[in-house]
Amino acid sequence: MNIICRNVDEMKKMSISEISPKIAANVAIAIEHIVLRALDFNLGTCWIRALKEDKIRDIFRG
């Protein structure tokens, strides 16, 4: 499993109004290319939009 995110210590929610829509689109395109490449290796992927950052942070910090 791969998780693509920024520095977990600095993870925070940002709305589209806080970042450039062009940047958001570019990130989405890049992630979709990763998804498509994973399919070449018979790997499944899943986009996750809503998650509980504090729980994810706890998982990575062990």
Describe the protein.
- With 62 residues, the chain is mostly helical.
- It has one domain (17-61).
- The chain has helices spanning 21-40, 53-61.
What can be said about this structure in brief?
The chain has two helices and no strands. The chain has 62 residues and is mainly alpha-helical.
Tally of individual helices: 2
Strand content bin: under 5%
* Shape descriptor: flat
Using the CA coordinates, give the radius of gyration: 13 Å
Total beta-strand segments = 0
Report helical residue fraction.
Answer: 40-55%
pLDDT under 50 segments (min length 5)? none
Major sheet description: none
Average residue pLDDT: 77
Q: What distance separates the N and C termini?
A: 17 Å
Order of helices and strands: HH
Secondary-structure-derived class: mainly alpha
List keywords for this structure.
mainly alpha; Nitroreductase domain-containing protein; Nitroreductase-like; oxidoreductase activity; Nitroreductase; flat; 62 residues; 47% helix
What is the strand and helix layout of this fold?
Elements: H1 21-40, H2 53-61
